[in-house]
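Question thread 4412

I'm putting together a teaching handout and wanted feedback from people who do this every day. The idea is simple: show students a protein as raw sequence, then show them the structure tokens that encode its fold, then repeat with a second protein so they can compare. Below is the first pair exactly as I plan to print it.
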Amino acid sequence: MSAVVFLVPFAFIVLTALKDRQDASRLEFSWPRNVQFVQNLVDVVQARDYMLIIAFINSTILTVCSVTLMVILAAMVAFVLQRRRSRWTPLINFLVLSGLIVPPAVVPTIWVLQGIGLFRTMTGLIFVEVAFGLAFSILLFRAFIATIPRELDEAAIIDGAGPVRLFFRVIFPLLRSVAITVIVVQSVAVFNDFTNPLYFLPGSDNATVQLTLYNFQSQYGTQYNLLFMNILLITIPPLIMFLFFNRRIVAGMTAGAVKG
């Protein structure tokens, strides 16, 4: 059932992207009468001075930087919360859970970014993506770190390892499976994010792939062949990631849940 829900719309996107303008305007689930894949691809890429290429570059920079910071910070916070319990641990746990429950506030976030001079900048948007995705990542890392024996920490400390060396040389390499899970899940989330770039990084020069779909729809709303070609192009990268790392995602999420 779930396969039908996902595969049928994707097949409709592919078929419409192959059609010419007249055939695509009917919005029918049918084989194209005149396959026009290459021409549609060229038209979409060249639209608005190659905005799609610029958007892919912006989305790649945003995704790589955000996910890198997310993985490192979440792993470090999770390690401290799991290994060094204190009277502040319940409060910190509450704040982490609040990051999953409390909805983000757009206007106060814009006010904060304007106050520190990061509004309408890629750096500001990266910090926003990290802040919004950190809570989920911390919970995954913490559940997995709970399965790592404390004897490894004690042996490394006896050998003279400090806190930083203990984490990066002993603990962090053991987090490979859950790190891959966080990387794939958060990469897809950041790459497909629409609202945050729209609110915190406005402007056509700063467009991400999802914003190009919004802009493309307003300009080429009647050319469904080009619109669906654009949808197809921005859908392929996350789809490929899920196809290649599907088993690792499940393994990373279930390992900490089962053993913890």
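The second pair follows. I'd like the answer to focus on this one:
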Amino acid sequence: MSKELLTKIESLETPMVEALGEMISYPAISPLDGGEGEFHKAQYLLKKIKELGFEDVKVYASSDPQAAGGERPNIIVRFPGRSGRRLWIVVHTDVVPEGERSLWETDPFKAVVKDGRIYGRGVNDNGQEVIASLYGLFAIKELGLTPEYEVCLAFVADEEVGSTHGIKYLIKKGLFDKDDLVVVPDMGTEEADFIEIAEKSICWMEFTVEGKQVHASLPNLGVNACRAANGFAASLDEALHAAFPETDKLFDPAESTFEPTRRRANVANINTVPGVEVFCFDCRVLPTVPLEDVKKVVEAEIKKAQEKYGVKITYRFPQYEEAPEPTAEDAPVVTELLAAVKKVFPKVAPKVGGVGGGTCGAYFRRAGIPAVVWGQESDCAHMPNEYTKIEHLLNEAKVFALMMLGR
């Protein structure tokens, strides 16, 4: 049965490549990034879904007056299985802007097929998964097979700018259940050898250090914000690492990370002592460490620095996301995905682990729904000349179809 299914998917290569190429000609860029949203792409997908013979299709549209059609459509395709349990494959239809057009060798919104690759904005992120999941299910339907699970394909909006109109909207609608198996193929490796089940908390901090600006020849008349910022940043770096030395082998790197990153320009000339310095830390914190504990260390170091340097230090969180509980390594969605991956990639030993933070799987885990993130992807998302390998497109369709069919 599995062999017949995989052979069927291989025979669908041409229509799959054509469908992916057609789909990316509809830019689905968020209004927040200057686009019109997913409406036109959704209309194309609905037409394609109908052509493929699927009948149980519903659109859940989130209202957005700034978008074409006044809405951000989420398409749900359902296909009955032997059991009442549901398998969801959740992929997004929106894309990021093309960026600097001159860096593209082709039109980003006109697919080019060359040397086993398809080029265009969104073919990798997340177009190949839209087509792979749809045609994986189509192969099952065409062979007259009955999946183990009720298969639910969710083609969602708004992933690139926060998922307010997409996954978060559907979770609020109550579409998902804690017994569901949820796969979010929004991240992957070239070798298809990593299944993400956990992520770290994300804590971005921006500090403003205020002193007093003066001429550099008379520093005694001012308060050097640059010196204070340098000293404070170094002390905070050391304090955070000392306070949270825990490790977790699920992650790579295994420890919490606290990285000084962006620093804004201060004065334009050399001979002025700056009165204001603004800099940031990017912290990726193990789920076992409450972010409130990180905040306590930060505030203690601020107090020390203010007393030592005579400055005022304030801070804000551009991002502050507490990590949800990881998906269990032995959860059904993990074991089913592992089994399917091993059938398609018999020489691969997939690793199950965690990432630094920021996947859509977190929205489901936060709602108490086990979810995994997996895909076979080239590392070119959001880049000029984005591409996907046709081989990856077919392999993902095979893995998804095998998961649907069950063991």
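Top answer:
Good format. For the second protein you could add a caption like this: The chain is about 35% helix and 25% strand. The mean pLDDT is 96.
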